[in-house]
Amino acid sequence: MAPHPKLIGDSDDALLARLRAGDRAAFAALVKRHAGSLLRVARSLVRDQETAEELVQETWLAVFTGLDAFEGRSSLRTWLFRICVNKARTRFVRDGRTVPFSSLGGPGDGDGAAMESGSFDADDAWKDPPSTWSEENPERLALGAETRTAIEAAIAELPESQRAVMTLRDLEGLETEEICNLLAITATNQRVLLHRARARVRAALEIRLGGVR
After folding, report:
1. For 177, what's the count of Cα atoms within 13 Å in the CB-facing half-sphere?
2. Domains identified in the chain and CATH numbers
3. Residue 8 has pLDDT above 90, yes or no
4. Please, which of 1, 56, 76, 177 could form a disulfide with 12 given CB 3.0 to 4.6 Å?
């Protein structure tokens, strides 16, 4: 069902109220609004597109059937991400696999890519950003198709734990506390993983886009 054009501009709270009153068009509007972000997060948790899409479908089903569980203590988007992360955890346990974000940020995490000492400030922003990186808003990197392709390819190659943290922080704009709560990691681990991920993506961008500073 396509969302009614009049619902597109409604806030999440307004759409939730409509949905709780039985308006299914409000659900379609929520899906349209958050589908892209939710799929990006799912792809950061699992490697293949098919599994990510299954996680997204399971997440929306859980939202539709468990709407009363949402108490508004976080944003709707954060709640969606939490459901998706929990669905991924359940899938890993069911398949007998180690949950990749259950013990993040140890010294041997990923391939051991080192952080660039002094490259980031206390707020985790670049001190000396690559020419294509916006310190104010990393999503501005997506303005160019070539750059977006390079970023997506570089992020896809990250170790799973780094990929999840960078997606949540730099692509979805979540704060450190939200990410730590979602992935059950410490602020220190989150920072280490974010810095390692950014260093790898920065290096990949400089190679793919000509290394311009």
Report:
1. 1
2. 5-94 (1.10.1740.10), 101-213 (1.10.10.10)
3. no
4. 76
CB of 55 closer than 8 Å to CB of 84: yes
Query: What are the DSSP calls for 32-82, one per residue?
Result: HHHHHHHHHHHHHHSSSHHHHHHHHHHHHHHHHH-GGG--SSS-HHHHHHH
- Short-list 119, 30, 108, CA closest to 70: 30
Q: Which residue's structure tokens are 């450190």?
A: 176
Q: 180-192: per-residue pLDDT in tens?
A: 999 989 999 999 9
Q: And the tokens for 83?
A: 């459901």
3-state secondary structure of 126: strand
Identify the sign of the CA torsion 191, 52, 48, 95: positive
Q: What is the pLDDT of residues 126-148, one digit of tens each?
A: 555 544 444 445 555 545 667 77
| pTM: predicted TM-score of the whole model, two decimal places | 0.74
Contact predicate 56/42, CB 8 Å: yes
